[in-house]
Design brief:
26% helix, single chain, alpha+beta, binds iron/sulfur cluster, 142 residues
């Protein structure tokens, strides 16, 4: 695939649930929830500096083979069922499963945008995230 990409100047869109494979082959990564983009950025921004709670939960579930890395690792467990995409929750569609949800999340849909407080900084958190309260969280993953 890489050879063809170089030869014909191609772009690939690769859709998968296995985050370790996605990182291996991707330059840019988008995380979707209920049919909408939750967060998008370079592979380093998404894997090492995720700011959306859904991305953080997904990464915390990636199996870690190294026992030392596993020790003390925080696993973010999502509760509740995935809502129907035909009838998503009001406001933020992730709010019914988000541990950070606040009143604002039920009434105002967060736009996919660089959070205001990260805009003028060169932190890797300076990438688009559809969350009113986007912030970095250290998530140990393989
Ligand atoms: S907008 Fe609110 S509910 Fe949605 S991901 Fe952010 S904190 Fe969670």
């Amino acid at each position: 695939m890489e050879k063809l990409q170089d030869e014909f100047n191609l772009s690939y869109i690769f859709i998968a649930h296995d985050l370790s494979i996605v990182r291996h082959i991707s330059d840019r990564v988008g995380v979707m929830y209920l049919g909408k983009m939750a967060e998008i950025g370079s592979d380093e921004e998404i894997y090492d500096h995720p700011t959306h709670p859904y991305t953080q939960a997904l990464l915390s579930a990636v199996p870690v083979p190294d026992p030392e890395m596993r020790e003390g690792r925080e696993r973010i467990l999502l509760t509740g069922d995935v809502p129907s995409p035909a009838n998503p929750p009001s406001g933020c569609r992730f709010r019914t499963r988000c541990w950070k949800a606040q009143d604002k999340c039920a009434v105002e849909e967060p736009l996919l945008a660089v959070p205001e407080r990260f805009k003028s900084s060169d932190t890797p958190a300076n990438h688009e995230s559809a969350c009113h309260f986007a912030e970095e969280k250290d998530v140990v993953h393989a």
